[in-house]
Structures are given as C-alpha cells and as structure tokens.
Amino acid sequence: MHFRPLHDRVLVRRIDAEEKTKGGIIIPDTAKEKPQEGEIVAAGPGGRNEQGQLVPLEVKVGDHVLFGKWSGTEVKIEGQNYLIMKESDLLGVVETTSSLKMAA
Question: What is the pTM of this model?
C-alpha cells in the first residue's frame, strides 16, 4: 500500500528513544516517554495561500524533525505506527553534524 498525505500534511515515523542513560542506567519501558523526534516518510504537495497558489512544504522525505508531545494523529499502516500532522505542527528540522559540515 502507498500512502500520500494531502495538502500540507506529513507522515512521520517516530525515532526510538535511547534504552540507556549516559551513565549506563537502563530505562524500563514503563518509564520511557514517547520520543518527540521522527523521520518524514511521506509529504503532501503543500498548502494554498489566500490567492489559491500552491505553497510547497519546507520539509522533505528523509528529514529528521522535532514535534510537540501531543502533536499529530497516530495511525497504523501495514503494522507500523506513524503520526500524521500538519507541517505547522513541526518544531524544526534536526541537522546532523555531517550535514552542517557539508553546508559550510
């Protein structure tokens, strides 16, 4: 099955949280919070402005993003859990150090 979000929505797969703290303490599943970081799996074409012109999304498939704790709608597609949210619910794109070096 292929899923394509509509308008300015994106499909996000959560990135799993760390199993251990920096000090080596293992965090049990009951104490873990849902991660607020994910990867864009699919993106819609964009929203429309007041003049009816298409405004493309600033994020693209493969971007690592941060989002609010209660953002999005949880869905299950082919046994995988995802979030569907508007681009405006995203807080930002996480840049890796290797991509920052390439941009410089």
Answer: 0.74
pLDDT in tens, 76-102: 988 889 999 999 999 989 887 655 555
Give Cα separations from 89 to 9, 21, 30, 77, 103 (angstroms). 9, 28, 26, 21, 26
Helix (H, G, I), strand (E, B) or coil at 20: strand
> How far is it between the farthest Cα atoms of the chain?
55
Question: Which of 1.10.3470.10, 2.30.33.40, 2.60.40.10, 3.10.20.30 is the CATH number of 9-16+26-103?
Answer: 2.30.33.40
Q: Which two tokens stand for residue 1?
A: 């099955």
